[in-house]
Structure formats: structure tokens, C-alpha cells
Amino acid sequence: MKTASIVLAFAASIAPVAAQADSFxxxxxxxxxxxxxxxxxxxSVISFGENAEPWSFRLITSERTTAIExxxxxxxxxxxxxxxxxxxxxxxxxxVGRGPCMFTEGHCGAITHYSGQADGxxxxxxxxxxxxxxEDSARVPFxxxxxxxxxxxxxx
Length: 156
Hints:
- The chain has 156 residues and is mainly β.
- The protein has one helix at 2-14, and strands at 22-28, 32-37, 40-45, 56-61, 65-69, 79-87, 90-97, 108-116, 122-128, 131-133, 139-141, 143-152.
- It has one domain: Beta Barrel (Porin), CATH 2.40.160.
């Protein structure tokens, strides 16, 4: 019996520690777009109207994954994906989903990049795959980005 207790204690001591997940409430600012013309690059806000609700969702991070809980996401940004470290306390992930999608005619995709801040919040930037039509009906990619902030859940 004593041997079994020692074996169990040893096994418990070498078992991997469960990775802690951190949860955040995220709110996005108005989407932005970069326009290209003969005059160069310029930026503008994509407006959904004065009474539009801000886009918000839950972000859960663990040692290896980023999960987004946003069931009604207009860009199909929902689910769990692997994350990669891009710098100290900075990570990125890539989400894909089936349409319909706000910025494309078919499937959706977006890079989510976030970095930890001194107050425990995250600075967030989402770059969805985006496509538009020109005056002659050609389809061309364009750069859209959605900046935001995530605060830790249970933050007081």
C-alpha cells in the first residue's frame, strides 16, 4: 500500500499542470478601411449608422489556443484556433468560417492580433479578409481593420 501511494504521488508530481485559460470581454471600435487611389493611401471609417451597437464578443486564451465566442458574428469570427506568439505578451490567430460574410461574397477569414497591456487589458486588432467591386465590376481585395480593447472578465 505504501508503494502504491509513493507511485501515485510521483505520478501526480510529473503530470502536466493544466493550462490556465484567461477570459476577456472585447469591444471593437468602428471598422476602418484603407483606400488606395492615384493620390496615395487614405483611411476612413465604415459607419453602420448612429444607432448601431458596438461589436462585442468574448475572447478566451490558453497556452496554445485563442477562442472567440461571438455566435452572431457578421464576419464569422467564432471558435477556437491555434495561436502563435508574435512578441512578449503578444499573440495572433487566424479564424475561418463559411459565409455569409460582411466583407466577402464567399467564405470568411480574419487575423486576430492582441497584446497584453500593463493594466491587464488587451489591445486588439482584427484584419478580416475583404473584397470589393470596382466601377467596372472587377473584384479587388481591400484592407479593413477593426481595432478594439479587451478587459479581463470579472474586472472591477
